[in-house]
Amino acid sequence: VYTFFIEKNVFLGTCLNISNEGEDSIDDIQWSTEVPSVFPFLASRGRMEVDPCMGLSPELLDIIFCISDHARRRHVLGHCFDENDTNTRQIFETIQQRLRCIKPTENSNSNQLMELHSTAFEEATWIYLYHAIKGETYQSEIIQSIHLPRIINALEQIHKAHGAQLGFLPYPMWALFIASCFVLEDDRVKILEFFTVLKYKKPISNVPSTMAAVEAIWKKRDLSSDKTTMASSRHAATWTHVISQLGWMMPFT
Known about the structure:
By secondary structure, the protein is mostly helical. Helix content is about 65%, strand content about 0%. It has 12 helices and no strands.
């Protein structure tokens, strides 16, 4: 039961809008840390095997949760990323090292589709790490030149590999959402193509709501004229305010 629900809960935790005053949102993800403390053998940290259905390893899920947890705590305290903040820097480097330790399987008989899912999730996690912990914006060179192209390439191959089964097989929606938040204007057409096909194949799902959130984020970015304010609040995820306004709390699965 824990294994089933932790996936939904971890992705949901990446989009919660945490206020400085309220504790309700914190309680929503509290149980993620309670279960491992009561039943240590259920803790996911260190388990590298990839789920053959989703393309996610327990270790990667734990990394995503750790990023969200640290970003939430820092946001509650009102702290921005500071190169001189030893604690935050150590957390960033530790998570960075954990991500580097995740290696693709070398088994030639392994599921190629799940390898593509795994690549999309891992690259999205790198972007999430740089943005949520280090405060990198969507214009960041390392995001735009390295990680984002890998996600888009993986998603293109996933759509081809799914073929007629697209909409019936598990899909890395969180990776698509992260990519959507960071694409430059010229690449939005690719994202819209992904969403259009998914929405046609799976209209009764979280695809329409995710697409609506993405479009709202793009509009907010396009209409924002105060670039200085945006730069000064880089530590806060752009989409959290949008999702809060939409009242949208669905996990990205």
